[in-house]
Amino acid sequence: MASKKMKTPAIDIGIPEDQRKKIVAGLSAFLADSYTLYLMTHNFHWNVTGPQFNSLHAMFMDQYTEQWNALDVIAERIRALGFPAPGTYKEFAKLASIKEVDGVPKAEDMVRHLVIAQEATARTARSLFDLVDEANDQPTADVLTQRLDVHEKTAWMLRSLLEE
What was the pLDDT predicted at 1? Predict the structure, then answer.
């Protein structure tokens, strides 16, 4: 006798669906900013030239590698909250606060663009804390805190390259 297939249980992690949906909307924007920052950093790694080539090429590689790994963490948090993660250029372009850079900027301008993009990504993460705190969603708060630390530190290091 075949056993009867059980219905998939509703998500019951202690955060109501309406709050999870709002958190996911914010995390989706954060994922879009993070992916856009990743692409920008990888593009600059490929195309940097000039006297700082070696140091910037290596720095950008470290940064885009770290960013690539973070994308999975953010997307998997969205999935754990019960919703699909955005994953197309079209969705990312619609959700991101960071605008793509046209052409190939000079090395110093690449650094400026990355400072702006790192700080924009940090602002997007920070904007979610009230919602996450209200929902008592510590795992999302943990992801955001870890990412904020990276984005703020990276922005500081990049900005230091621009100081006279």
Answer: 61
Considering the entire predicted model, what is its pTM?
0.93
The answer as to whether 10 is a domain residue is no
- For 20-83, the DSSP string reads HHHHHHHHHHHHHHHHHHHHHHHHHHHH--STTHHHHHHHHHHHHHHHHHHHHHHHHHHHHTTS
Assign 163 a pLDDT band (cuts: 50, 70, 90): confident
Contact 44, 67 (CB under 8 A): no
The model's pLDDT over 20-49, given as tens digits with 9 standing for 90+, comes to 999 999 999 999 999 999 999 999 999 999
SS3 for 99? coil
Q: Please count the structural domains in the chain.
A: 1
Residue with structure tokens 């690449």?
Answer: 110
Say which CATH number the domain at 75 has: 1.20.1260.10
* DSSP three-state, residue 161: helix
Which structural domain range is residue 111 located in? Answer: 17-162
